[in-house]
């Protein structure tokens, strides 16, 4: 998610339906899915086609698979039966008991209590709700009935285990959250018990009521609720809210104008939810709550709270600040909030080590350019501070945000220095390359392509298009790193390439083509045989950076098809030139630093031909190029085919030489048949 790159995609056949969420087996690093309720599929990352992976048809319908980090996958069937995956795979058609009769499962969750896997699930029948707790190793099952309340029914559940007690939280239709305590240690002979609910939180504040759809527990004092907040006389608005259950206060809320699916997930101190058509991720950090912090939040509603130390750039600039105001994880060390407010207009006087990074960047928002950059340089110089990489990402984001608000501002040298001296990634500063593309800062784009390991294919394509479209005369005035081309493109002072004849081990590309096709004229060699580079050294260096960038063919190909035909031909000419240059070397390796490898050149040639083959066949200027490329490849295939024919004879000769007395002088004639 942080790299914004799809890593894999699998699909079932037409007509088949995946009927429960796919999970990962942490022990075997395999994915587990169920389609059409009963068909189990298990596969690994390297598998491509689901039809060819492991398949098992079960005897009963599956409700959900839960994967525990140290306990393995646990399968819950719609009839209430539970099996570990290992036991189930021993006999997939084993009979599964029906425990819950006419009840319907509404929710389930699995935990590890010590070394013991524990499964809890809630069911409904005729308006009554029941809770089942199963300890797998002990094979014990307990059934409870939830206490009913008039005009209220549970909408969503969540739970956690602590000190042998399950705390079950219920989000109910009366806009309240209730708590239910279930002890794990129970007498197995006891009959069905009724669980009483206690009110934990009323989801209303200042006359506004939250109609929650899903919620998660953050810690013992805080929960997050996703839903619609409705004020009297106003339209309801979807929002994410954070509540302090200890002091019954709304800590913060964030409006989500694009709408959500109503689902909220929480994993490793990050919120996951859909906002419009995108998956939004917001980081948070909880510390022990206090009454002063809870009341302080109510008094200071202007301070943004929901935040991301790494700016995900999804819900606005205010997400750049710290965590919830009541849990200031990197908050003020000595100054009170009132003191801080009084100093907001004197940014230069505030010492950076007394503020959180997010607060410092907010304070610098309206500072002058000189003060702004000086403060950021001081912040970067503190290499010993925690979360340093995230801090650099926030600094770049602050610079980019200022570029967006002030089109005349562009700190090219500052950005270039940061990228060259720090180990960054695209996900830490996703807007950096977008702004560089807008400014046509090809040098910064070149460095990003060389250093960022996680650039999306769309951005890689955009860089390629910009590099191919910029004129050679413009590039000659630009500072570009030529390390990757200087060793195999010789340039005179008048910028004309000097032909360098390279013949190694008797192989010459021009000579080989003459052997197999005597109709190629000398003029063809000069113009299209790869002797002369079709682009200047600056453009060649930029294109080499693209060739080095990691990509997935599946996701790059659709973008590459949009490349204008003339640019595609030019790029293919350059790839052909590199291909010929590599073939001149016995080790097929170009000299220089970060020079393209033969594999990268071949992969991009194939990708470009796949994307534009029909167009290139129709273009007159491309026909000769394709023909020469075909002839060159054919000559190479024949050359290596001839080498393969004598491979056996050469090995036999080597064996005979080892058997002879090295001190005996002789001359022998061996006939290779």
Q: Round the mean pLDDT to the nearest integer and report it.
A: 77
Total helix count?
A: 19
Write down the Rg: 33 Å
Low-confidence stretches: 297-354, 491-530
Strand order of the largest sheet: 8-9-10-11-15
Beta-strand percentage range: 15-25%
Note the overall shape: globular
Largest sheet at a glance?
5 strands, mixed
Structural class label: alpha+beta
SSE layout:
Blueprint: E1 18-25, E2 30-35, E3 39-43, E4 54-57, E5 62-68, E6 72-77, E7 82-84, H1 85-90, E8 104-113, E9 116-125, E10 128-135, E11 140-146, E12 154-162, E13 165-172, E14 176-183, E15 193-195, E16 198-202, E17 204-205, E18 208-219, E19 222-230, E20 237-244, E21 249-255, E22 265-266, E23 270-275, E24 278-283, H2 291-299, H3 337-342, H4 357-363, H5 369-381, H6 388-405, H7 412-421, H8 432-439, H9 442-451, H10 457-469, H11 472-475, H12 509-516, H13 522-528, H14 537-548, H15 553-560, H16 565-584, H17 598-618, H18 620-645, H19 647-659
Parallel strand pairs: 11-15
Antiparallel strand pairs: 1-2, 2-3, 3-4, 5-6, 6-7, 8-9, 9-10, 10-11, 12-13, 13-14, 14-16, 17-18, 18-19, 19-20, 20-21, 22-23, 23-24
Helix pairs in contact: 7-9, 9-14, 10-14, 10-15, 12-18, 15-17, 16-17, 16-18
Protein name: NOL11 protein
GO cellular component, one term: nucleolus
InterPro entries: NOL11, Nol11_C, NOL11_N
